[in-house]
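Service request form, structural biology core

Requester: graduate student, group of Dr. S.
Request type: structure prediction, single chain
Budget code: on file
Notes: please return the result as structure tokens.

Sequence provided:
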Amino acid sequence: HVQLVESGGGSVQAGGSLRLSCDVSGYTFGRYCMGWFRQAPGKEREEVAAITASEGALGVIADSVRGRITISRDNTNLSVTLQMNGLKPEDTAMHYCAASSLNYCVLESSFFQWWGQGTQVTVS
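Core staff response, request fulfilled:
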């Protein structure tokens, strides 16, 4: 049974930073792509970033957050992290961690099979 649990969300002022974490269990973590998505009220779910299985792999970053976000993973502790800097009000959304059954990354939600409950990010 795959479980993803996000943490680290909160309320910050514009220009601030947050570090989101996703702890994973019940999943062969070290083999597959992991990603982050977000959804604001009244809007469609939007891709944020994804990272392939290798800890040294470069992440795939959406244009909307490029230059402000870093994704990383720890295959020993089964976690993936999203470091967000220079936050803007338009970054306000529920942020979701997602796991794929693929060993390569496609930054589209349909390529991810398992999802966490989300952590709220609010920027004012």
